[in-house]
Amino acid sequence: MFEMLLNPKRAERHPAEMFLVGLVYASLSILLVRWIFAKDIVLSNYSGILIVTFTVMFSLPFMYYAIKNEEQKDLETSGFMRLLLEHRRALLMFMWLFMGFIVAYSFWSILFSGSGILDAQVSVYCQINRPSQSAFQNCLEQYGVGGFKKTTGFITSKEKVFMIFANNIYVLIFTLLFSLIFGAGAIFILAWNASVIAAAVGIFTQSNLKNLPLGLARYLIHGIPEIAAYFIGALAGGILSVAIIRRDMAKGKFWDIMQDSLNLIILAVVMLLIAALIEVFVTPVLF
Questions:
Q1: How much is the pTM?
Q2: Exposed, middle or buried by CB within 10 Å (0-12, 13-18, 19+), for 9?
Q3: What are the boundaries of each domain within the chain?
Q4: pLDDT 10s digits, 249-281
């Protein structure tokens, strides 16, 4: 049903509409998990994974057709800059969708604070910010029940930039692999990252809805270029995946598609470096 309601070509003309779609998809996912699995002794412990899974299920048809349309542009367009301009609407469309995920996840995680719906994401937050074993355990105890204390840096700024950049490259590689193996598969990585950001927003806001705008601003300053890089990587892998499926390898255009995909990956890496620098040197100054 959803693939019939959403037309990627229409969405490209009105990319901001995807924000509402993201809100609906993420909200439905959380409410369904709360309704169906909240009283299940086993599955309730995996709410964070189930929420992302439902979001992916809602998004897959749209992502597949959108990436398929973008691959067609590669066949019809030559030149990296012209191609990038062709893809810009799709990137905006994906970014608005992702923003909808973040806002909805953040809102419901604060509203359902203490219910454990994003416990898995909180664990990832602690792993990133408190990597040592003792600090990680303390972090889980701190935030697992909704407590809040402002974290402090545990390494030098240069080391932190390197660690964040390396972690982001790791995520980019998985995004590429997921999108290459299954063109729209990268949506799982991206929805997961949206839920992790939402968990961080919930921690920062001390589970207070009044602080939600400030929390979103704190993480989106560096989150927007970071997630844009992931979407560029997903687009590169997805375009290549569709080209292989459609057997464009036998045509002369395949190598042009390969070159364009590599250019997109390089752009994604540069954006991840910029995002890491912003996260370490700009965000702490502002917040």
A1: 0.81
A2: exposed
A3: 2-286
A4: 555 666 777 777 888 899 999 999 999 999 889
